[in-house]
């Protein structure tokens, strides 16, 4: 039993070592030169810059859309303000007209009316 267990462990270690070396030889690890590292960094930097530019464009478009919405809302508020101003002007005109009528009524009330003292009423003759 011990013998079988030891042989299984040895077989497992051998198989894993063989698999490791096979994978290692499939992809030879190549050391990059300084120039290659610089070129790779430039490529990554260019890709990063493009993604950042795209994000900035999307943000600018979103901001522009939001500005248009706000502008449309403020224009509708301008219409509302114009209507309020018209209503105020009409109200002021009405008050001015009422004050004018009130003043005329007060002037008429202060005038003395002369009623003739000789108010003889003649009887109406019927036929």
Question: Can you describe this structure?
Answer:
This protein has two helices and no strands. The protein has 127 residues and is mostly helical. The radius of gyration is 52 Å and the shape is rod-shaped. The model has no long low-confidence stretch (mean pLDDT 82). Among the domains are: 37-77; 78-111. It has helices at residues 2-26, 34-110. The termini are far apart.
Secondary structure topology:
Blueprint: H1 2-26, H2 34-110
Signal peptide: 1-19
Keywords: Signal
Biased composition (Basic and acidic residues): 34-45, 55-70, 83-96
- Global Rg: 52 Å
Q: Specify the overall morphology.
A: rod-shaped
Q: Main β-sheet: number of strands, strand sense, barrel status?
A: none
Order of helices and strands: HH
Number of helices: 2
What distance separates the N and C termini? 160 Å
Count of strand segments: 0
Mean pLDDT figure: 82
- Note the beta-strand portion: under 5%
Helix-residue proportion: over 70%
* Low-confidence regions: none
Main structural class: mainly alpha
Short account of what is shown:
This protein has 2 helices and no strands.
Could you list some keywords that capture this structure?
127 residues, mainly alpha, 2 helices, 80% helix, 0% strand
